[in-house]
Design brief:
alpha+beta; Glutaredoxin; Glutathione S-transferase Yfyf (Class Pi), Chain A, domain 2; 7% strand; phenylalanine catabolism
Length: 227
């Protein structure tokens, strides 16, 4: 499928869900524009609690774009999609280039399973909107749930992995893994207990598509965090 205009990604440099979509765009070789949505400034441009806030106009615009008031949201082919896995699978179904899901049904199911473990079972529990409610215990909370998730993921990856998460082809599972390991490192999770996860992450971060999509290289990356 061809389009007359480039897709537009509304995201945040350090959002793992936004990063997944950036990786997918890079792997597919798709050019796109970015519209930063700051999840921190003035309580977050994706949501607001103060009706007098100068952010209200922008946040109301974003709520109209994505009623969940989360990132990412992508304008593509005349529609708006949210939820990173739905976006990635749409790209897989409509764009040529590198496959994001294996052809073999068993491997495809494994890639989806690994992706769902991360996207549903780990990442939401240490998402910004959650840990902001936790308060002083947010570090311990995040460490607990990331570690618990990795304890489940490590033995699965030992069975499925080759060079990458599922065999020797990059898939949606790898797209989900790298941002989650980045979060684990931010929250000081001991990765030495997860050698397969650590190996896969190190391998993937050497690839150009993962480098250019990294949080340190985005238009909204603060200067002190740029590569």
């Amino acid at each position: 499928m061809t389009t007359q205009t480039k897709p537009v990604l509304h995201g945040y440099f350090r959002s793992s869900c936004s990063w997944r979509v950036r990786i997918a765009f890079a792997l597919k070789g798709i050019e796109y524009d970015q519209v930063p949505v700051n999840l921190i400034k003035d309580g977050g441009q994706q949501s607001h609690s103060d009706a007098a806030s100068p952010m209200i106009k922008l946040t109301d615009q974003y709520k109209a774009l994505n009623p969940m008031q989360q990132v990412p949201a992508v304008n593509i082919d005349g529609i708006t999609l949210s939820q990173s896995l739905a976006i990635i699978q749409y790209l897989e179904e409509t764009r040529p280039g590198r496959r994001l899901l294996p052809v073999d049904p068993k491997k495809r199911a494994q890639a989806r399973m690994i992706s769902d473990i991360i996207a549903s079972g780990i990442q939401p529990l240490q998402n910004l909107s959650v840990i902001q409610k936790i308060g002083a215990e947010k570090l311990q909370w995040s460490q607990h749930f990331i570690t618990k998730g990795f304890e489940a993921l490590e033995p699965i990856l030992k069975q499925t992995a080759g060079t990458y998460c599922v065999g020797d082809e990059i898939s949606m599972a790898d797209i989900c893994l790298v941002p989650q390991v980045y979060n684990a490192e931010r929250f000081k999770v001991d990765l030495s207990k997860f050698p397969t996860i650590k190996r896969l992450n190190e391998t993937l971060l050497k690839l150009e598509e993962f480098k250019v999509s990294h949080p340190s290289c985005q238009p909204d990356t603060p200067p002190d965090l740029q590569a």
